[in-house]
Automatic annotation (TrEMBL):
This is META domain-containing protein. Residues 69-139 form the DUF306 domain. InterPro entries: DUF306_Meta_HslJ, HslJ-like_sf. It comes from Muribaculum intestinale.
Length: 145
């Protein structure tokens, strides 16, 4: 089984940089490739959380706490629901995908108090702002605002 990873990015900068520069022919080719990708977005399954990046805070990376190797942090997309497991808490809610657009509702979160809540805090901040999803090689998903 292939390990799937998810990278959450809270920035519009990545999208803007990808669309700037190049000539018209390259842009049309890129647009056609993007349309093909959009039609095939499938997020179903379990994705491991690799990192969460916020560009508005000096590019701070919040990596899931790797000290607890027995606990894998992940998100599962199934039917129209998502489930997130962190080191300490879980978050679940509904989602909808249309093309490359994804909408995740705020969801419900368990409220266990833990020593390191960085991932939970980051997820609370980013989930309502996620707007697009990109899948690379069926193993990496990037969620952008």
């Amino acid at each position: 089984m292939t390990r799937k990873s998810i990278l959450s990015v809270a920035t519009a900068l990545t999208i803007l940089t990808a669309s700037c520069g190049g000539n018209k022919e390259n842009k049309e080719t890129a647009d056609n490739q993007q349309k093909e990708t959009v039609a095939n977005v499938d997020v179903h399954g379990q994705w491991y959380l690799e990192n969460i990046v916020f560009s508005d805070s000096d590019y701070v990376r919040v990596r899931p706490d790797e000290r607890l190797s027995s606990t894998h942090q992940y998100i599962v997309f199934e039917d129209s629901t998502y489930f997130i497991r962190t080191n300490c808490n879980t978050i679940s809610g509904t989602y909808a995908v249309k093309g490359d657009s994804i909408i995740l509702d705020d969801g419900m979160m368990t409220e266990m108090a833990c020593d390191n809540m960085a991932v939970e805090d980051a997820l609370r901040r980013i989930l309502p702002n996620i707007a697009t999803v990109y899948i690379q090689n069926d193993s990496i998903a990037r969620l952008d605002s």
